[in-house]
Amino acid sequence: MSTLISEGKTKKLYTTNDENIIKVAYTNHATALNGKRKEDIDQKGTLNNRISSLIFAYLAKNGIKTCFIEQLSETEQLNKKLTMIPLEVIIRNLASGSFQKKFGTDYLAELKQPVQEFCLKSDELDDPFMNNDQILALDIVTEDQIEELRQTAFKINTLLKELFIKANILLVDFKIEFGFDADGNIVLGDEISPDSCRLVDKDTKQSLDKDVFRKNLGDIIEGYQTVLARLEAEIN
Ligand code: 5GP
Question: Is CATH 3.30.200.20 the right assignment for the domain spanning 4-80?
Fold first, then answer.
C-alpha cells in the first residue's frame, strides 16, 4: 500500500511498506517566483529523477550521507525518510542570480572563494536570507549543526565541481537541503538537478538549467538532456 504523504512544487511523496522509506515521484511541474509561475514541461520529471539519482549515488560513493536508496522507474525513486531542516543551503562559485543583483557584479564574475548562504525555507516569506544568529535565535539547528551543514555543503561543492568540470560544465551555484534520519544523523535530502543548480557550458557559457525557464529564454529540456548525457558519460 502506498499513500500520498505530500505534494511539493515538483515532487510527490508516498509511503511504502517500510515506515523509514518513502517513494518520491518527480512530476513535470516547473515553477518560478516561489511557485507564483507554473507550467508543465514534458520530460522534466524523468530527466530530474535520472540526473538527481546519478548525482546522489556519486556523492554517496564519495562519502556523503544521502537519503537516496535507488531509482525505481523513469520518474520514481526510493529515499530514506528524513525530518527536513527548514533551511536552503546555497553555495556559489561564480556570481549570478540574487548575489549578482545584490552586489552589482558582472554575470559569472570569479569569486575569491566559494560563498555559503542559508535561507529559511518559506514560500510565503520568499525564502529570506538568514545569518547564523537568526538561525540560532529561531532554534532551527544548533551551532555545531550549522557548522556541519556548512562543511558538508562545501565538501559536496568540491565533489560536484570536479564531476561537472569533467563534463565541460561550470557549476555556478546550487541549493541543497538536509534532514535528520531515524538515527539523528544529518543527511542530504531533496534533489540536485538543473532545477536547483546553475550550470553553464564551460566554452559557450550557455545555460543548461532552470534559468532558461525563469528568464523565458526558450526550451529548457535541451539543456537538461545535455546535462544528463554528459553526466552519464562521466559516471557510468
Ligand atoms: P539565487 O539566490 O541566486 O536565486 O539562487 C542560488 C541557487 O540556489 C540557484 O542555483 C538556484 O537554482 C538555487 N535556488 C535558490 N532558491 C531555490 C528554490 O527555492 N528552489 C530551487 N529548486 N532552487 C533554488
Answer: yes
Whether 170 and 202 have beta carbons less than 8 Å apart is answered as yes
Query: Given the CA of residue 100, which atom of ligand 1 is nearest to it?
Result: 3
* Mean per-residue pLDDT over the chain, rounded: 97
Cα of 64 to ligand 1 centre, how many Å? 21
Taking the CA of residue 101 as reference, the ligand 1 atom at the shortest distance is 3
**φ/ψ of residue 37, rounded to 5:** -110, 130
pLDDT digits (tens, 9 = 90+) for 55-78: 999 999 999 999 999 999 999 999
Of 36, 37, 108, 173, best ligand 1 pocket probe by most atoms within 8 Å of the beta carbon: 173
For residue 95, the 8-state DSSP code is -
**φ and ψ at residue 105, rounded to 5 degrees:** -85, 170
Give the CATH fold of the 83-219 domain.
D-amino Acid Aminotransferase; Chain A, domain 1 (3.30.470)
- Tell me the per-residue pLDDT of 117-135, one tens digit each, with 9 for 90 and over: 999 999 999 999 999 999 9
Q: How far is the CA of 17 from the centre of ligand 1 (A)?
A: 33
Q: Where are the domains of the chain?
A: 4-80, 83-219
Displacement of CA 185 from its chain's centroid (Å)? 19
- Ligand 1 geometric centre to CA of 229 (Å): 23
> What are residue 162's phi and psi, to 5 degrees?
-60, -45
Ligand 1 geometric centre to CA of 69 (Å): 25
Q: Give the atom of ligand 1 at the shortest distance from the alpha carbon of 195.
A: 22
